[in-house]
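Predict the structure of Amino acid ABC transporter substrate-binding protein.
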Amino acid sequence: RRLSCQACHSTWVPQCYGCHVRADRSQAMLDKVAARETPGRWSEFRSFMRHESPPLGRKGDEVVILVPG
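Done. Here is the predicted structure for Amino acid ABC transporter substrate-binding protein.
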């Protein structure tokens, strides 16, 4: 009763470890909301990712999938 549907029906989940965002304050980039250049260039990357059986944990009284990253 306490298992969430996903706890049994998800065969894998993405598991990301490590930093995913890098800031380079010596550069600028376009802020698409403000429609102008702003200081700092942000980039996203993957450091380590795998697709494995989902780890389970508790959220309140329910057993749910925990996704690191």
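The beta strands are 13-17, 21-31, 36-44, 48-52, 56-59, 62-65.
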